[in-house]
Amino acid sequence: MRINFMNSMAQGEKMLRHLGLFGLSVLVAAGQPLLASTGDAENLISNPGFEAGQSDWLFNSRPYNASLDVVADSTAPEGEMVASVTVGEYCRSASIGSRWITLEADQDYTLSVSLRSQKGDVPVTLSVWSWADANGGWNKKTESRKTVQVTEQWQRFFLQAKLQDAREGKYQVLIEVEQPAVIYADAVMLTQGDSSADFHAGSDLDFGIDFSEPSMLFEHGEPVDIIVRANNRRDHIWPLTLEYRVEDFRGDAVIIATKDMAAEPGINQEALRFELGKKGYYKLKISAIDSDGTPVGEQLASFALIEKKQSDELDSNSPFGVSLSPNRLELELERAKEIGVGHIRVHEVFGWKQVEPKEGDYEWESFDVETSGDSSSAFYKPADYDFSVYRQSGLLPLVYIEGYDKSRPDWADEYDRE
What we know:
Blueprint: E1 3-6, H1 9-16, E2 57-62, E3 66-72, E4 81-87, E5 93-98, E6 101-102, E7 108-117, E8 122-131, E9 141-150, E10 155-162, E11 170-177, E12 181-192, E13 205-211, E14 217-219, E15 224-232, E16 238-248, E17 253-263, E18 266-274, E19 280-290, E20 295-306, E21 321-322, H2 326-339, E22 343-346, H3 352-355, H4 388-393, E23 396-399
Parallel strand pairs: 14-20, 21-22, 22-23
Antiparallel strand pairs: 1-18, 2-5, 3-4, 4-12, 5-11, 6-11, 7-10, 7-12, 8-9, 8-11, 13-15, 15-18, 16-17, 16-19, 19-20
């Protein structure tokens, strides 16, 4: 087993340019902000200024034609980077959400964020939400929300939230756009109490990772390349040790390694490469350790090594699939063939209550239907949704029926969903 570290910034930048070739990958972080600013209420948001890329942030759109990018902005209220949310035609909504945060119920919290639009005035909804506790039933929400009007100039917006009981005491911050627009977000802060304090970070270090292959599917025999991002908010070089562990699907460690990193003030990038001998599913944990042994950042992710395809033909028996909107599929189809996917997730393009308004009674008149067997598994589309790209691709569609909130039929509420 061979491990190579690439310290060249040019090499790192070259790999980063590959990001976006196969859609959006989401990395889930487990670390808490460990070095809170003194004198201020702790900011509970990780990577609040997006200096570590998309790490610690989740992206969701309904149904398609939306994207999240992290871009440099010379006017950024905090640091150098900002989140850019693009919502295209036919997209009902798109949102970025923080990782789940443990908060106290019946306490006051303040959410604040800096926002601007690319063009014109755009309504944006801020919320702190969660699933209701066990007595509230499945799909019942508890939330505080506020819609603000965002202009082309950076503005600071505040939401005072008083939280009710939630399952496991975990909540999420959401920033949601519900019309075609481009919105920029920066300097997100969530603090306990009723406060309009200026932005401050919850940690001296923003820590994140990016895979060179955003699908996180690598061909067997090829190296796995990763970019480690570390934004040092201190005014001096910070000696850190990167510790990483790769486990196979059984939980057995196949790589345990360390590397020293001298993080200069501002954004740092460290590229590393490792090679694995067997195909399969792997879990990765990377930690940043201070010189005194204190963990100051952590990221968790998973990836897979798959057999290199011998043919460019799509295989409907493949266990792998992709989740891409039609506009992205046209760009990514060749790459999908290369890595051997056979399925595609058709995004949530209509509501459950339109398809099954009465239990067991399916109404397909308003959809372009291609049935195969039981009508409950029909392949369908709304009149304004073009499935021709899916059909021509040869990928087997896995259709998703949206059943949240207003899309759920009234009769479904009669069932106990605990």
